[in-house]
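User: Please fill in residues for this 284-position structure.
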């Protein structure tokens, strides 16, 4: 049976493409139908149309309001036909909103797996994403073979909301590392050290990280076409601060990267890859 896929942004397109390469038949819904057709996917007109031929539907959207919309829009997923279907939600949510999606699907007698993605376009295409799932264990076990087609490291945290919280925590590391690597690169150049040499040295020194490995070439080429955007990391760091506020906990190291990425958004660079924060330190 076909797999439904909602949301063909950068990451969604990479995951859906990987699934196609692994011999899965994909039927997609995208807000802009023409873009999905141009990418070579079979496309339906509404989310509800996916329920006619798909028992499993992936959602990969920017935020909780976007996911809420595909459930509740006219001819959205929230209908009688949702009963018995499996929703695998790859989106990064507000820690409270994701609980509402669990409850909504349970009331509709559907199965919902909260499954945020750690990684971006290149690892998605290679099938080596890290995935963290929360929901009912039997649902996770049922779809795990499908997750393994695009994920390499797959973790299960049963308590609802845990996967979303872990994703936000992870993205504190991600944003902090990226900002530090970018500032170090700019500072090295100001010291007349060639950028590529500086990145080589950081890569075997204090900068050693998956972030540097993933973004090194982008920094060298100054190719900031988005794999993971400034808008996305900015949103996630705001959500993380909401979480910390609700727990009455300070987040000492989160404030600065959040404000740096907020500045990138204010400068009109929100759609660029988050490695373009390098431009901020270069004074561009």
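Assistant: Residues filled in for all 284 positions:
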């Amino acid at each position: 049976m076909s797999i439904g896929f909602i949301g063909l942004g950068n990451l969604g397109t990479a995951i859906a493409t990987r699934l196609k390469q692994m011999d899965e038949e994909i039927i997609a819904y995208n807000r802009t139908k023409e873009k999905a057709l141009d990418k070579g996917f079979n496309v339906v007109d509404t989310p509800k149309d996916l329920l006619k031929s798909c028992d499993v539907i992936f959602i990969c959207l920017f935020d909780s309001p976007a996911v809420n919309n595909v459930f509740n829009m006219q001819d959205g997923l929230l209908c009688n036909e949702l009963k018995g279907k499996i929703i695998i939600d790859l989106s990064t949510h507000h820690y409270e909103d994701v609980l509402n999606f669990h409850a909504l699907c349970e009331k509709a007698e559907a199965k919902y797996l909260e499954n945020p993605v750690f990684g971006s376009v290149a690892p998605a295409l290679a099938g080596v994403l890290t995935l963290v799932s929360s929901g009912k264990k039997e649902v996770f076990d049922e779809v795990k073979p499908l997750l393994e087609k695009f994920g390499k490291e797959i973790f299960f945290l049963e308590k609802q909301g845990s996967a979303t919280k872990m994703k936000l925590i992870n993205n504190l590391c991600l944003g902090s590392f990226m900002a530090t690597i970018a500032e170090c690169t700019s500072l090295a150049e100001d010291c007349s050290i060639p950028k590529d040499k500086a990145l080589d040295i950081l890569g075997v020194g204090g900068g050693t990280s998956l972030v540097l490995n993933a973004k090194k070439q982008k920094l060298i080429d100054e190719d900031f076409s988005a794999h993971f955007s400034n808008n996305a990391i900015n949103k996630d760091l705001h959500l993380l601060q909401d979480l910390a506020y609700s727990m009455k906990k300070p987040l000492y190291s989160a404030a600065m990267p959040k404000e740096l990425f907020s500045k990138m958004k204010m400068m009109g660079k929100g759609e660029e890859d988050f490695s373009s924060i390098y431009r901020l330190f270069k004074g561009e």
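For context: Strands lie at 2-6, 26-29, 42-43, 54-59, 86-89, 111-114, 117-118, 129-133, 151-156.
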